[in-house]
Amino acid sequence: MTAPATPPSTPRRQLLAAGAGLVAWAVVRPVTAAPTELAAAIDAFAGGAPVRQGKVTLDVAALVDNGNNVPVTVSVESPMTPAEHVTAIALFNERNPDRDVARFQLTPRCGRASVSTGIRLATSQKLVAVARMSDGTFWSKTVDVVVVLAACIEGEG
Amino acid sequence: MARALIKVPATARRGEVIEIRTLIGHPMETGHRADSDGRKVPRDIIRRFACRYNGETVFSAELFPAIAANPYIAFFTTAVDSGTLAFSWEGDNGFAHAETVAITVT
Known about the structure:
Chain A is an alpha+beta fold. Chain A is about 25% helix and about 40% strand.
């Protein structure tokens, strides 16, 4: 049982502390949200399985002039035999409105685990390619991309 | 009607790994943009792509709004038999497009 000497100050302090916390949360959230969402998207694709670095090559220009169409090639080291092949390749981004970019389903009939496409990048960010192998393991490659002219997202937010 | 460009070698040796390149005309409207009046433009994208080689699906893809307009997809397949490669694209607002290309395997 506490009897504060100055009763009005306690709720005021709590209110101030709560307000400061709220401001801190509002300031920090946009910075931390994107990497957390990226990790969550990768985790959902891997079904919680560990995702290791390696085996995957992600070819994309480190400095992108135009974010509206960025050529990307993902290649994975694999013999692509019925016994040992890549079953899927997923591409994720860090700071576009959606974390997903594309998912490709491969078969041993592909012969080579390499896929190319053109993507949009809203701003400078990380790109992550994740490959799922026929033995159930997941491998990834992360690349940092600097975007000069962003893809059109005016009106967003 | 959408226009699609597909590059497949006309002939290949059995067992050869060949590259297939596809491009289809489509705006891939993200659903995140606003028009000049500030109204959100509804999403209109291609969501699925598949390639079947003599009926067997050898490669398929799920696309999201981060894929650039006029989606380009290139991949590889092993030439096994002469026949047809069938390509299909499906998306929002009932979008569907299909193409077939003949290949001769020697």
